[in-house]
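Dear colleague,

Following up on Tuesday's group meeting, I ran the structure prediction for the two-component complex that the binding team flagged. I've pasted the input sequences exactly as they went in, so you can double-check that nothing got truncated or mislabelled along the way. The structure tokens for the whole assembly follow below. Feel free to forward this to whoever is handling the docking comparison.

Inputs:
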Amino acid sequence: MADSEMTLASHEPELQHHFDDSGQQLESSTLGMWVFLVTEVMFFGGMFGGYTVYRNMYPEAFASTSHFMNVTIGAINTGVLIFSSFTMVLAVRSAQLGQKKALIAFLILTLILGCVFLGLKYVEYHEKWVDHHIPGPGFQYADSRYFHQAQILFFLYFAMTGMHAIHMIVGAGLLTTLIVMAARNRFSATWYTPVEMIGLYWHFVDIVWIFLFPLLYLIGHTR
Amino acid sequence: MNHQVVSVKVYAAVFCALLALTITTVAVSKLELGEFNFIAAMTIAVIKGTLVVMFFMDVRRATSMTKLFVGAGMFWLAILLVFLLSDYLSRGWRPSLRWL
């Protein structure tokens, strides 16, 4: 009896009883998070596949729509997102070292960069709105040959960047939760699993953009 | 899992490499390389993605089980894209077959 009480009292408060030690607990969380991220890879993979099929079916229409993509904003947003991944990884590092102030500062910086990305996305979507490039009844296109095909490609553009933006918004909410948790001293050098897991999510969303940027903005100008 | 803290220098180097690759991919897209534009853009994107997965997501230090799951995810994505495209691209709907 005395033995079991001692075992219960000796481990870290964050360790759940069905794990041997905190290392095993963290491994389980990491593996579980990756299983979720793989389902996300499949989800975005389907859209990338559909996009590739349509781009091969209508290469001329694709080439004409690609002139309306704002490469400057796309490139700046790529930089912003890479920078936010860098600050996120520094936030996880601060958590590992138990530096609460640095952790909160880096999380806030990551959140701000995420909001900058979404703000620039708004500017881009607004451009498309003003130019009547939103697929649907109000759609207008300069080259009437591609009126229908261009709508498919703009639809894919909005579906893919839109799903990505929704993931960014979810990520911003998760970062806000982390900031509140960190401010309430919920994390320590021995337990910071949510910071690390949401970090994985944030980097995943960054990777999706790393592939979206060249596919939607860069290739296709030259054909 | 080895949880020694990685130095800021390593993360900063990866960050600089990612920015340099972003500038490279934009610069290459301005050149007229024909089919090679797509290959170059995708090669750079894969390198960038690998850097993020290995260093920022720390898969290089993850357990074998996690690495297996990540690898399986990539493999299933390859099945999805290769089988999908081998169907559509072999139907002869396009007169001349282009690079993806």
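Residues 25 and 41 of chain B are 6 Å apart (CA to CA).

Cheers,
M.
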